[in-house]
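Internal QA ticket QA-208
Title: Verify multi-chain structure generation after dependency bump
Assignee: T.L.

Test input:
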Amino acid sequence: MTSSRLSNQNRVTLRRTIITLLFLVAALVIVVGAASLLGSERLPVSNSLCALTTLGARQCGLTSDHFDILFQIRLPRILLAAAVGGSLATAGAGYQALLRNPLAEPYLLGVSNGAAVGTMLALLFFGSLEWSRPLMAFAGALVATFAVYRLARGRVGATPERLILAGVIVTTFLSSIIVFVTTMMDATRIRSFTFWLLGDLSGANTGLLPVPIAVAVVGAIILTLNARSLNLLMLGERDAFDLGVEVSRVRVTIFLIASLLVGSSVAASGSVGYVGLVVPHLTRLSVGSDNRISIPSATLGGALFVIVADTIARTVIAPRELPVGAITALIGAPLFIYLLKRV
Amino acid sequence: MFLNSSRFIKSLSLLLITLFSVAACTRSSAVLNNPSTNTRRITDDAGREVFLPAKVDRVISLAPNLTEIVFAVGAGSSLAGDTTYCDYPVQAKNIEKVGDTQHPNLERIIALKPQVVLVSTASQLEVFTEQLRSHNIAVFVTDPHDLEGVFRSIEQVGQILGYVEQATAVVSSLRARAMAVDNALKQSPRIRTFYQLSAEPLYTAGHDSFVTDLLKRAGADSVTANVPGAWPKYSAEAALAARPDAIILPTGGSMGEGNGTVAKALASSPAAKTGRVYKINDDHLVRPGPRAVDGLEEMARVLHPEVFK
Amino acid sequence: MLLEPGVVTAVIGPNGAGKSTLLRSLNGSLIPNSGTILLNDKSLGKLSRRAIAKQITVVAQEAELRFPITVFEYVLGGRFVWANSTTWGWEGERDLEVAEAVLDETELHELSGRMMNELSGGERQRAVLARALATEAPILLLDEPTANLDLSHQATLLGLVRERCNSRSSSALVITHDINLAAQFADVILLLKGGQVVKTGTTQQVLVPDLLREVFSVDVLVDAHPISGVPRVTPVH
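Actual output:
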């Protein structure tokens, strides 16, 4: 009896998951607070903290400019960073579990580029309709996901090599479409576009901010609810089916939700690369590969990662700004090559 | 397991480079074209020594401001090709097009047999110089950072094309107009101004932009005058904190009506609240050519209406 | 053909006879072109995946192990179908108890904290069976479960299946190439050829030389096992 009880103690349990997630939420609150105090303008720390704790209900002696900087510019941007990071990391964790491939990632699979093409087409043809952007991005992400999945599926199934190769093909193909479309655009739009393609969170103060936040939260919950099925699917589809997992339903759900997550974040911020790769890996290393804990941890971890990356992007050469995608890629690309060598 | 991993990493890193490289502006110094047949020597804004034949009568312009300069010095007949953006003066539209500023067609350029290609951004240099040199075509780079730099471009183009007198006349008339603005504004208070190149993302004119000099001459203190670079992306909160008293929106020219509204971060600025937001024809402000002085006069007029009644 | 409680049915036949197709159809992963499969008088096609998995479990020839997992977690995977909303997708006390009991039953207790890929072939196959037993499904489908096992492990595994059928009136369907093993453990034998049932019945009824020659195209000698008395089949060349 004893050895089994022992193994039981190391298990991922609901209790341990809740403790881990509470810890991450606490970390998120602290990082949001810290990032709110950093920026090209220096704000008085104690007054800002006071205003933050009242959620902007009281001005706490801040000048109205400082108050606006805090609540109109910084906080929305930080929230968008959290939503984008959470979405991309959740999508990455979902793709990795479903495709049983540790290298699967929205950016490398071409899904981000699919969403980018969708957003561009929305801007070109329905420029005035803000809502068309996330919808078209979702559609683009879905098409790209489907294309990669079909390309990667050989006779022996989707091996890691095939999948990444298919991702490279789809990515480069979509990149050429992006180049083609930007060439057709006029010069002023090109500048904003090239910046946007690298991932840019400065558009946070728009009315659409609740969309990526809601999508991130709902997406993470739905994926977490499918986590037990994903645990079995990760081991093998045949056995998962035999044990009662509705394989095709779960697969469609994950693909849809992951595309939705990628679509909404790309429409809001462009292609922020590598979040979906770096974060799920780090969370799996630290909390284990049980999706019931690793998926929600990845969501919170992704939010943390992008908030930190964006804080660097907007402070390091202040008052100028870097695209946040440049920072995430700077961290992510070396890690990717390291993981590629280990596969 | 991963047999072809090195090839993989290679192709991936190639992909990453394509995706992430921000167009690098490398300035190769002193790339010479064939000096034996080209007897004249002139130094361009990139610091290169360019060798030219004694008489230049076929030139291609790769930027609208350079096309305007060529016409302004009276050398329009020497213009063998220009870009799709070149729309001023109207004759420029009838010149053979060699693509746009970002993507000129090298074959077309060579086929038109120019002696010189005029280029306005150093980033184009890499692509062309080598290939054009083998066809004995010189590349001349202009990169003005202030109005005097624009005047120098005009004089240099005149020199290259053999229209020195006309160029000198153009410059002295432009300089006189600029001086007139200077004199008129001597006693005027300077106005803290934000130059909004685009709202989302927020771009402005930095230290190296000739627009910053135009603003100074127009009696404005650009709040971004000391930001490094020519056209930096600017922090929204820094823009808010700057509290400009006036905002300039370059818009309404050949680029269309975009950029017609103030960025959200500036919506509560004194400028927006007092209605001191001014739209200026962007063709006068993004093209460092003769019409930059029009832009200067227009900005001076809107910023100091009391002086220019 | 009928699977009855407490009965172990063995399916034998040459390669390509349709043994695996039969098993996959019974499990609902293949949909038959004609004929119906009824589970407790309900058509299999009309039942949800979950409802089927509560009644029918499969023991495959080998475990699918694309990711590392401990034996205990692996066995606990068999409780998937019993997950309900009150436990938020987590295993409850009852699930843990069942897993412990099954590990006792299959004598894997000592190994429950080990990783699946560290086990020997026999141990691993016991874990596969343990997971199937953990589902508590009354119908077990076994797809050549002993193909990769040596003699003693073959007997252990099928002995466990036999025991489960006896103690809980479960029914089992075993696909095997080993006719003698089938004869030893099965109550009923189903002889297949070219997708058709050639004969169903007790071992004595099915394992007769004429039938076997017809199906396997080889002359066989059938005699009685000296100890158990069940038929023993030996090919004659």
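Spot checks passed. The CA atoms of residues 61 and 147 of chain C lie 7 Å apart.
Status: verified.
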